[in-house]
Amino acid sequence: MKNSSSKNQCPHARKCGGCQLQGTEYPEQLKKKQKQMQSLLGKYGKVNPIIGMKDPCGYRNKVHAVFGRDRKGNIISGTYEEKSHRIVPIEQCMIEDAKCQEIIRTIRGMLKSFKIRTYDEDTGYGLLRHVLVRRGLASGEIMVVLVAVSPIFPSKNNFVKALRKEHPQITTVVLNINDKRTSMVLGDRNIVLYGKGFIRDRLGECSFRISPGSFYQVNPAQTEILYRTAVEYAALTGKERVLDAYCGTGTIGITAAAGAKEVLGVELNPDAVRDARTNAKENKIKNIQFRQGDAGEVMQAMAASGEKLDVLFMDPPRAGSDEKFLSSAVKMGPDRIVYISCNPETLARDLTYLREHRYRVMKIQPVDMFPFTNHVETVCLLSRNK
After folding, report:
1. Among 41, 60, 59, which residue's Cα sits nearest to residue 365?
2. Ramachandran region of residue 319, left (φ > 0), alpha (ψ -120 to 50) or beta?
């Protein structure tokens, strides 16, 4: 296990605040998370031992850097200090992909010679706000997203050429336009400067398209374990009608489709839905459809029309699900619900609701998707009381 036992490894830990468990040896991190999960979820059933990583470093294949200047006017890149918009300059991060970080350092070094000014939040002047780099773990494809306030990027072709000379592994470069005074990283408009504007990666037997704004888990190695567990819990026989709620680019639904009769994926983000449809087509999955819309509203309409489900996959955001969604799910009465959660507190809240409405928790499996942080992903299987 490389680099996992050093007590004071990251010099940025106190200011950055991204890794709450810095200075804690990895086996101790897992014990702490197991205890937390037992405390929150133990009353619902047995909590299986958390699945950790062999090497908990460098797992983030999506790296985001904020660009700005220090008090002396030097160009810096890094992350926002916790609960502020002060930039913590970061040269190396122990949980981020090394190649992605290298590309960000190269871009920072190129800005002066290309006369590209970094954006100043206070004055509103400058061009470059953020850089986002995503790498496919299995495919090796790399996407660089330059987030700027204007579509006019000086010498953009020469800039891309110089960047790719240093890093020929880059397969696409996208200019994202974010001209609003907002804390959101990405804007709505993308201009492809090089390549196809997306990358692909593999999870299990399926390949997936990843666009700049698409949700895709940042730890692919653990994601494969997470999704494999979810599909195993669904116990599909080929006869089931399945709904994949909050489906993103369709990763869970497409993975499960081979074992189901039919699958419907529901997702609010239109870019993710486009990617999901393309992913299904490229993987030759014909028994899956995708609907763009709010998961709760779609479920409510389906329940009102008397539709039934056999299996429900749900992977909501950190806020968990809402009563509109959960009440509709109960009304549709799937035999099994596979709940994938990134927040054990909202998971516990939603499990309480489902348990009060004829469902019992059968299995609870935590997966350590985010070593050195407090976050834990969990797969829960619920079964409907007959």
Report:
1. 41
2. alpha
Three-state SS at 158: helix
**Strands (DSSP E) along the chain, which ranges?**
62-69, 75-80, 87-89, 128-135, 142-148, 170-177, 189-194, 199-203, 206-210, 241-245, 262-267, 288-292, 311-314, 336-341, 359-367, 377-384
Structure tokens at 329: 């799910």
pLDDT at residue 6, as a whole number: 42
pLDDT at residue 123, rounded to an integer: 86
Q: Are 373 and 222 in contact (CB under 8 A)?
A: no
Residue 41 Rama label (left phi>0; alpha psi -120 to 50; beta): alpha
Tokens describing residue 273: 């839905």
**Tokens representing 336?**
């099994």
- Over residues 194-209, the pLDDT tens digits come to 999 999 999 888 999 9
- pLDDT tens-digit profile of 244-277? 999 988 999 999 999 999 999 999 988 889 989 9
Please state the separation of Cα 53 from the chain's center in Å: 18
- The DSSP bridge pattern shows strands 377-384 and 336-341 to be antiparallel
pLDDT one-digit tens code per residue, 76-89: 999 988 777 888 88
In this prediction, residues 325-332 reach a mean pLDDT of 93
Report the chain's terminal Cα–Cα distance, integer Å.
46
Q: Are 380 and 38 within 8 A, CB to CB? A: no
Cβ count near 3 (within 10 Å): 12
**What positions carry a catalytic annotation?**
342
Q: How far is CA 149 from CA 101, 194, 211, 355, in A?
A: 23, 19, 20, 48
Contacts of 329 (CB under 8 A, 6+ apart): 299, 303, 309, 312, 314, 337, 354
